[in-house]
Amino acid sequence: MSQPPRKPGHSALRKGRASLAGGIYLITAGTIGRARVFDDFPVACIAARCFEDSTVLGSNRMLAWVLMPDHVHWVLRLGIGEQLAASVGRLKSASSRRVNFCLGRQGALWTPAFHDHALRREDDLRAIARYVVANPLRAVVRRVGDYPFWNAIWL
């Protein structure tokens, strides 16, 4: 009797993932169970501060980000010697620790996996950043200015 084929799962997402110094990546990470953790304003503030913390970013540069109630989008330029998975891990770990401390809880906040898309030179970086920060318009608010949890270096 043959075994059913195994689903590759999250490990398949990592195959072929490259970390190119100076490369720009659009990254999406979700909360466990799509829990709307960041509907809570103080909790969202705590997480958002991590996305621009130089001790968390290392030599990376955050170009744009938006924190939604149950996920985050980052546009990140990798620094010299930085690895994509480790950089995303630091962002998720730091925000998890700080949010958990605030809520008096323990455990995972983010799903173990994340989605990334390496941007090419010909991609319109500003258009991608506009798309990222406009995410709340599709789900939360009528005007981007009414939503506090985003930033972009072009402002």
What does this entry look like structurally?
The chain is an alpha+beta fold. The protein has one domain: 2-Layer Sandwich (Alpha-Beta Plaits). It is 35% helix and 19% strand. The protein contains six helices and five strands; from the N terminus they run αβααββαβααβ. It has helices at 9-14, 41-50, 54-57, 84-103, 125-133, 135-139, and strands at 24-30, 61-67, 71-77, 115-119, 150-152. The protein has a five-stranded antiparallel sheet with strand order 4-1-3-2-5, sandwiched between helices. Helix 2 (41-50) runs antiparallel to helix 4. The protein is globular. Mean pLDDT is 88; it is low at 1-7 and 9-14.
Annotation, overall tally of beta strands? 5
Low-confidence stretches: 1-7, 9-14
CATH topology: Alpha-Beta Plaits
* Radius of gyration, whole Å: 16 Å
Q: Mean of the pLDDT scores? A: 88
Q: Which architecture does the CATH hierarchy give at level 2? A: 2-Layer Sandwich
Number of H/I helices: 6
Strand order of the largest sheet: 4-1-3-2-5
Which CATH class?
A: Alpha Beta
InterPro entries: RAYT_transposase, Transposase_17, Transposase_17_sf
Protein name: Transposase
Domain Transposase IS200-like: 20-135
Pfam family, one: Y1_Tnp
